[in-house]
Amino acid sequence: MSHPRGRLLGLVALAAAVPVVQNVLFLTLDFRSAEGLSPQGSAVWPYDSYNDMRWLLVYHDSWQEYALGLLVAIGLRGLLCAGLVSLAWPVEAPRPDRRRILLRNLGTAALTAVVVTPFAALAVAAGVVSLSWFVFAAVGPMLLLAPFLQRAAVNYHGWRGLPSAALVGWSLLDFALITVAGAVVWRVPGWWTLLVAALAGAANGLLWNRSVRAAVLPTRVHWPRVPVVPIVVVLALAIPLAAQVVTSRPADQVKTFRPSLLDRPLPASVRYAVIVLGTHDSRYDGRSAVDPAAETFSYAGQDAAGRPLPYGPLDTHRSLESSAALLARQVDALHARTGRPVALLGESEGAMVGRTYLRDHPGSPVKALLMFSPLVRAARTYYPPEDAAAGWGIAPGWQLRGVFALVARVSGGRDSPDEPFIRSLLANAPFYRFQTMCPVPGVRMIAFLPTVSATELPPGPFTQIPVYEVPALHGGLLGRPDITDRAIDFLEGRDVQSQRSEYPTLQLLGAAWQAPALAATINPVWRGQVAPGPPFSQARFCG
User: Fold this and answer.
1) DSSP string for residues in 54-97
2) Which 8-state DSSP code applies to residue 316?
């Protein structure tokens, strides 16, 4: 294949084959949620390694398996990229011998795997808590790294100096390509996905051609003596740490949770007594609501008179089961005092507490549940407890512990990937993954969803209860006057559901950047919670 046209055809064919093979496997397993990942299988650096590391971090259950998988992933990626680089090499420049190209790409594969692994671990964390900011913190550095790593992979002096504007443009175009292609691959039905995957892979091949050409052919290099790549790698690693530091606050800086609903009387047409449940890391100062039929749920319990106690941010770190047990006592006391059916209004973690309560207390006095920013399809990935010697996802668990420990040292925050709240999500993953957005007999339910949550939500059906979709970030919906008014409307018996046209589009565009879900049937921790059958079947949702 020395002829330029023959090399280009070989490049396109090789790049197209990889996502096609992946999608054949996904179709065979009915692994629909993973189909959007396949276009990254032959993408340019570092998107290709980011794809590899997400799969590896989810699908290993021991340190030995992780180490072996890492070596295999580096070897296969280095071999594939050596072939792609060799076929993409411009005829205007002398091509190094195959051995040199192979060794350079194996080295780049090893370096890139190390660099992107922390970001892949954040994608695993996003799969646990279903929070989109983890995805953004993981994907943002990829955009920064891409043109620098692409140049370093093919140019002997590529570690120094800035990449050309053309190389930056081609790397951004590949990001857009695999984002859109991931959406289209998921959207088309059945075996048609193979055609779309092949076209996406072929486009990757053309972008390899352009990227290698831009990196190899002579051009003016700015800062030719500066080792830019190591500097950029450090900056990329600092991005998610800085984001976590900014969003993590010491306990004494957390504002009191006080939705405006508690500062006004409930309308006479509302027949419920109301309990409002705060978010993770919230604070409650013990003040009573204006209306005696409304209360704040306390993560610290009640006093001897049945009043909710003040609580601090660390009190919200308790397990969902223990919070639901506290809520049960508060529900019973409020119901006995008012004689009314109870409505729960929970934000983020509070929504999950309310949903856990309904699971654990069927036939309770609670007759309405309003969930604001719930963790939709949470616990799709897993990592074992700190004292475990093995288990699915053991490596990202320790990587996340390192990230959170560093953040805690800098910011003074107390969040941990092993706090009881997170561990209760992981231990009961089948329920939170498949049942959170499912109806409960005898209970009116609605979920108020910020549109940003769509980017972390796998494409496809995700709810069988009414939803009200809002252009917003996660959390804070209960503090908005317009959302409070809609909540009152729902409590008065009105139909307030509203779906936005961009929500499913954002779901599709986020499909390429999520971590793959761990098969529900292979984790022994979930044994007894999962019915037999195909692990990825859509029938498991609300089944």
Assistant:
1) HHHHHS--SHHHHHHHHHHHHHHHHHHHHHHHHHH--TTSPPPP
2) G
SS3 category, 274? strand
Using the structure block, give the residue that is written with the tokens 């023959």.
6
User: Residue 498, SS3?
Assistant: strand
Q: What is the pLDDT of residue 1?
A: 45
Q: pLDDT digit string (tens) for 135-177?
A: 888 898 889 999 988 888 787 777 788 888 888 999 999 999 9
pLDDT tens, residue by residue, 149-159: 888 878 777 77
Angle at 377 between CA 514 and CA 365, to 5 degrees: 160
Whether the pLDDT of residue 240 is over 90: the answer is: no
| Euclidean distance between CA atoms 158 and 165, whole angstroms | 15
List the structure tokens of 527: 């044994």
Q: Cα separations (Å) of 194 from 20, 185, 265, 274? A: 5, 8, 58, 51
| Structure-token match 């370096």, residue found | 111
Residue 283 DSSP symbol: B
Q: For residues 178 and 68, what is the distance between their CA atoms, to the nearest angstrom?
A: 28
Among 37, 116, 36, 53, which residue's Cα sits nearest to residue 393? 53
- Which secondary structure element, helix H or strand E, spans residue 343, and what is its range? strand 342-347
DSSP letter for 348, please: T
Using DSSP bridges, classify how beta strands 273-277 and 294-296 pair: parallel, antiparallel or unpaired. Answer: parallel
Coil, strand or helix at 446: strand
Burial class (CB in 10 A: 0-12, 13-18, 19+), 445: buried
Q: What's the CA dihedral at 12, 179, 112, 386 to 10 degrees?
A: -140
- Which ranges constitute the DSSP H helices of 261-393? 320-338, 349-360
Question: What are the tens digits of pLDDT across the range 484-515?
Answer: 999 999 999 999 999 999 999 999 999 999 99
pTM over the 0.90 mark: yes
Given the structure tokens 């294949």, which residue do they identify?
1
What is the Cβ-side half-sphere exposure of residue 502, based on CA atoms within 13 angstroms? 10
